[in-house]
Amino acid sequence: MNSFPQLWKELSQSADFVCYEHRMSSNSLFIGYFKSLIEPDVLHQHILGCLSSRKDLSFEDLYTLIPVAEKEISSDWDLIQSKLYMGYVAIQKGQHSQHCIMVNAAASKGRSVTIPEIEFTVEGPREAFVESLDVNLNLIRKRVPYPDLRVKEITIGDISKSRVAIVYIEGITNEQYLNTCIQRIQDVQFDQVTDSTLLQQMIEDNSNSIFPQTIGTERPDYVAWALSSGQICVLKDGSPTAFFAPVNLWLFFITYEDYYLPWIIGSALRMIRMLSVLFSVYASSFYVAVMTYHGQSISTIFLPTIVSSRINVPFPPIIEVIIMELVIELLREAGARLPTKIGQTIGIVGGIVLGTAAVEAALTSNFLLIIVALSALASFTTPIFRMSATIRILRFPFIIAAQIWGLLGIFICTLALVAHLLRLTSLGMPYLVPFYPFRTSDLYDTVIRPPYSKYHHRFSFLRSPKPERFNKKNANLKRDIDE
């Protein structure tokens, strides 16, 4: 392709491409654009209206006269074609000209800013990211009006041509983490990147691990907090979810609402979440191990109840547990895929009906039904969906190990899990920090959320060039107006 007529001919094979001649006194203008991508008001008022007001203009005067900020003169065929697919209007003066003016007239169609759908909160702001990258950057800049906030934009995907924005605060974010993140995004070799969740998987340190190594969020306030801590945020045009890194394991059990509550309440809720995760992973496997190998360890107080509940159950504990776990997963998937109101009804009615029917049909015991139901509820307390899905899958290896080796199997599975977590990293940062490597100074915001007077420095494992947030000598200073 080495001429505009060839370019217009190729693009005209699409029904939504428009190319026509605008006659002037001395020569003609050839205008091309995709009508499905542009804003008609911009085209007719700012571009065509400008051309109609003057009959004879030079190419440079025409460029100056168009009242649109985003415009350029180009002779690069690949650039012109890519800009047309982004909603630009191409203006060529004369049939044999090798230059054209590219004017941005892209339509800004999309939903308006709404409340968070996944990370709903009682306290705090009610704004969530949308599918427009420019709107999402606006939501971040409103919360971080800081002169050193930087945005680096990269285009990835041979087919999708996706705009990806890397947001960070210069002077606070570690350069090594930033360069690693930029390099990995630039190295992405995939033709169609439709959502930021795909990009998360492509740039993670270990793509074969079921543990996520970046945190996705739809809340601008959470992103603002992460940026001020020294982390890097990545947004993609067309995706309502941003993600940030580097992260450690404990951040997945922290909800940003903890910071809007008094620190004692926030700490209590955080500990409940972490204990719930342990219960969700180990409860069913302990049941299998005890009922199969370690029946002598059951207290005489509970023994009659357990025996009477299992006396008519024809299956061994492992089959009983797997059946109930699969039923819970089926109900969860059915509720997630159906419309909201129907999904809630299916979840409640299905759980009650199937649970009652399973007990009456002697397919399971009352005791196990309570354990599995509590395990399912406990897994819902994890605020990050990807980690919640990990916890759900993690139960099954523990159940199988408990059936094979009993409590020893659970111990072996735990060691394997810890060994895997010790090897994981996020942009090169250890996944279990601050417990491994152990850092006493960074324990203040893991299991317990301290008061804000203790946040005088950033986490040392983020290696920020500016580790101090404020002078800790004045952290607890509360003076009255007459002092």
How many distinct helices?
15
Judged by helices, strands and strand pairing, the structural class is alpha+beta
- Provide the number of structural domains: 3
Biggest pleated-sheet summary = 5 strands, antiparallel
Counting DSSP E segments of at least 2 residues, the number of strands comes to: 12
Strand content: 5-15%
Categorize the overall geometry.
elongated
Helix content range of the residues, please? Answer: 40-55%
Rg (CA only): 29 Å
Could you state the order of secondary-structure elements as H and E?
HEEHHEHEEHEEHHEHEEHHHHHHHEE
Distance between the termini: 77 Å
How does this model look, in words?
This protein is α+β, with helices and mostly antiparallel strands and 483 residues long. It has three domains: 4-104, no CATH class; 133-247, no CATH class; 262-430, no CATH class. It is 43% helix and 13% strand. The protein has helices at residues 4-11, 40-53, 59-65, 77-84, 133-143, 175-186, 196-203, 220-229, 263-292, 303-310, 317-337, 340-360, 366-379, 385-405, 407-423; strands spanning 17-23, 28-34, 71-74, 88-93, 100-104, 149-156, 162-169, 215-217, 232-236, 242-245, 425-426, 429-430. The strands form three sheets. The chain has a five-stranded antiparallel sheet with strand order 1-2-4-5-3, covered by helices on one side. It has a five-stranded antiparallel sheet with strand order 6-7-9-10-8, sandwiched between helices. Strands 11-12 form a two-stranded antiparallel sheet. Strand 11 and strand 12 (429-430) form a beta hairpin. The N and C termini lie far apart (77 Å).
